[in-house]
């Protein structure tokens, strides 16, 4: 598997196709393998690169240390893109990876040509209609899942986290492949307790001026739709698509429609 040294870290990634770069950023409990349904279809038009973020598979992290932070992952992705030496690139981010992609476009606009935010995770601040200091539901879910993990109940931790993003029964509905990927990355939950993910704010959203596609699943949880709608109101250059027969994991729930929507936007 290819790798790049980024900020002193050996970052492994999957690659497919040729042409202009398209970088895919995975979300919580996932890694480069999450994007398997996208690699060949998107690789027919682009050089697709899907890195595993710091401390995710193939690393077997024990959850110890202070380097699992949103800001660290943003700067790692900036370093990864810069190391490609290919100028501004197209970026897709899903869930937590969507938050990272948002911050990447906010802080390093020269690196981004076009942006796809697939149900970016997080919360809204008061400027976008969120509660003062955030609702706390996200942090509570992270803490409860991490506590189960520390107690040795790994599957219970996965179930609690899956229900936060997908509602009751979300863990049971996942395929064996998705479950295996999540279990391989279980200890990254210990890092998410204190990842310091700031809520989305109006000023930050207004500063992102690259063309942006906002994507959500038709059957997703309300908190993700709320974020998409808030960003759509204030980001200067957005379009939106809803993927049918899909929930939060729309790129694996319905890859054919997800891939078609991305390719149409990037055409």
UniProtKB/TrEMBL annotation:
Domain AB hydrolase-1 residues, every copy: 21-254
Presence of the UniProt keyword Electron transport in the record: no
GO MF, one example: hydrolase activity
Domain of life of the source: Bacteria
Alphabetized Gene3D superfamilies for the sequence: alpha/beta hydrolase
Keyword tags: Hydrolase
Name of one Pfam family that matches: Abhydrolase_1
PANTHER family: AB HYDROLASE SUPERFAMILY PROTEIN YCLE, MONOACYLGLYCEROL LIPASE
Protein name per its UniProtKB record: Alpha/beta hydrolase
